[in-house]
C-alpha cells in the first residue's frame, strides 16, 4: 500500500508539472486555513478531521501547509463456523505537511506526509480488551474541489496505519 500511495503522490506532482505555467492558478495566500471532515473506507470504516494552514504561499507555483489530523478506523471480523467476533479500533493524532497546486481557481491537488501517535484496541468475543500505542506515519495524496470560495468537497488517498486508506468529505477554506 505504501508503494501505491508513493506512486499516486508522484503522479499528482508529475501531472501538475505537465501543465504549462499559465494553466496553474496562483497559490492560496499565506494565512489561509482549510479544515475538513471525511469518512473513509478500506480497510474497515472510519473518519478523519484535519486542519491545514498555508505557511508558504509561493514556491514552485504552489503552497505549503502545516496542520494536524485526527484519525479513527474500525473493522471487525466474524470467523465463519465459530461464534467468535473480532473488533479492532484505531485512533491517531498527527501533524501533517502538504504541498498543493491550484490547477484552476476551484480545483486543488495536494500531496504530503503525516507522523504522530496512535493507539490500537482489539477484542475477541469472550476475552478482555487489549490495547497498544504506536507510532503513526504515512503519506497523503488528495484533491479538493470548491463549489464556492469557501465550501468544497475533498478526497484523499492516505496510508497511515491508523486510518482508512480512501477518504471523501467536505472542506472549508477561510
How is this structure best described in words?
The structure is a single chain. This protein has 174 residues and is mainly β. It has a single domain, classed as Porin. 10% of the residues lie in helices and 64% in strands. The protein has one helix at residues 2-18; strands at 33-41, 45-59, 62-78, 85-102, 107-124, 130-146, 151-159, 166-173. Strand 4 (85-102) and strand 5 form a beta hairpin. The mean pLDDT is 87.
Please specify the SSE layout and strand pairing.
Blueprint: H1 2-18, E1 33-41, E2 45-59, E3 62-78, E4 85-102, E5 107-124, E6 130-146, E7 151-159, E8 166-173
What integer value in Å does the Rg equal? 18 Å
Q: From the coordinates shown, what is the CATH architecture?
A: Beta Barrel
Beta-strand share of residues: over 45%
**Terminal-residue CA separation:** 33 Å
The number of domains:
1
CATH class descriptor: Mainly Beta
Helix content: under 10%
Q: Which geometry do the CA atoms define?
A: elongated
Order of helices and strands: HEEEEEEEE
Instruction: Characterize the largest beta sheet: strand count, sense, and whether it forms a barrel.
Output: 8 strands, antiparallel, barrel
The total strand number stands at: 8
How confident is the prediction overall: mean pLDDT? 87
Strand order of the largest sheet: 1-2-3-4-5-6-7-8
* pLDDT < 50 stretches: none
Amino acid at each position: 500500500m505504501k508503494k501505491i500511495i508513493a506512486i499516486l503522490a508522484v503522479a499528482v506532482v508529475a501531472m501538475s508539472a505537465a501543465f504549462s505555467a499559465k494553466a496553474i492558478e496562483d497559490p492560496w495566500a499565506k494565512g489561509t486555513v482549510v479544515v475538513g471532515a471525511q469518512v473513509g473506507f478500506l480497510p474497515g470504516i472510519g473518519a478523519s478531521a484535519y486542519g491545514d494552514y498555508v505557511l508558504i504561499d509561493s514556491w514552485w507555483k504552489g503552497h505549503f501547509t502545516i496542520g494536524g489530523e485526527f484519525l479513527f478506523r474500525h473493522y471487525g471480523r466474524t470467523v465463519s463456523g465459530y461464534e467468535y467476533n473480532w473488533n479492532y479500533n484505531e485512533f491517531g493524532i498527527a501533524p501533517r505537511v502538504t504541498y498543493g497546486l491550484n490547477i484552476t481557481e476551484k480545483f486543488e491537488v495536494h500531496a504530503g506526509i503525516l507522523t504522530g501517535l496512535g493507539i490500537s484496541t482489539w477484542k475477541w468475543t469472550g476475552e478482555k480488551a487489549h490495547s497498544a500505542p504506536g507510532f503513526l506515519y504515512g503519506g497523503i495524496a488528495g484533491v479538493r474541489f470548491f463549489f464556492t470560495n469557501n465550501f468544497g468537497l475533498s478526497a484523499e488517498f492516505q496510508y497511515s496505519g491508523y486510518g482508512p486508506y480512501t477518504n471523501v468529505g467536505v472542506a472549508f477554506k477561510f
